Amino acid sequence: MNDFVARPEHGIAWISGASSGIGRALALKMASEGYKVAVTARDHEKLAELQSEANGLAGSIIVLDGDVTNPEDMEHVLASIEYEHGALALAVFNAGIYLPVHAEELRREDFERSFAVNLQGVVNCLVPAVRHMKHKGQGQIAIVSSVTGYGGLPTGAAYGATKAALINMAESLKFDLDKMGIRIQLINPGFVDTPATRKNEFPMPSLIPVDEAAAEIYAGLKSKSFEITFPRRFTYTLKALNLLPYSLYFWLVNRATGWQERPRADGRRPVTPSPAE
């Protein structure tokens, strides 16, 4: 196991998807703790507002515009960090989108865009970051996935698929990164009050404010844990739920979300299964 834990004196922290939600709140939290934080997103104005909000904090915000779906953008971001600001000590790959999927109205573009941002976007950041940290002989990387990656949930066919892939990716990379002096962590939040989760069409138990999520993540980054997950009573319940037989799993999720009773997305009435003959 690699025991490296980044501190502000080790160098720059890089957060992707920092224009809103968890990324934005985490950037402010880390700047308040003395980090020089490089923030990346497509919306320059929101990043500039974030930079202004950090004025007077112990650390600072560095605005580096870029689209995670463009690998050249991410190469340029890393080059700017390395040659203009200092060594990259910690990277939190947070950029992501949530596009609800209904089987009655499947659209290829919902899957393609989700995969491009949530999965390939992490890879586009990960490749230059690992190369940089490998050269330095140390570093810390955290990948933001979600408890929706534990098992299928209503409307999560695209989003959940990308998050499940990120969980597997982080687990698989850990074996080699440990030997390289690079510590990797997996962040699996429960429901956090962000613009993305407000699209959910079912009750969200244990919903927490974004500032509380940022505090949980920051504490987890300083710990030796591989997985950072919160609130644990809820997320561990979901872990246990996915150990159940599928028949029981689907029944419980339908019951908890009320999904079986909801009208179909195309406006047609639900199909009533015919009794077995």
Automatic annotation (TrEMBL):
Keywords: Oxidoreductase
Pfam families per the UniProt record, alphabetical: adh_short
Gene3D superfamilies linked: NAD(P)-binding Rossmann-like Domain
Domain of life: Bacteria
A single MF term (Gene Ontology): oxidoreductase activity
InterPro entries named among the record's database cross-references: NAD(P)-bd_dom_sf (IPR036291), SDR_fam (IPR002347)
GO cellular component: a single term: membrane
Family: Belongs to the short-chain dehydrogenases/reductases (SDR) family.
Protein name: NAD(P)-dependent dehydrogenase (Short-subunit alcohol dehydrogenase family)
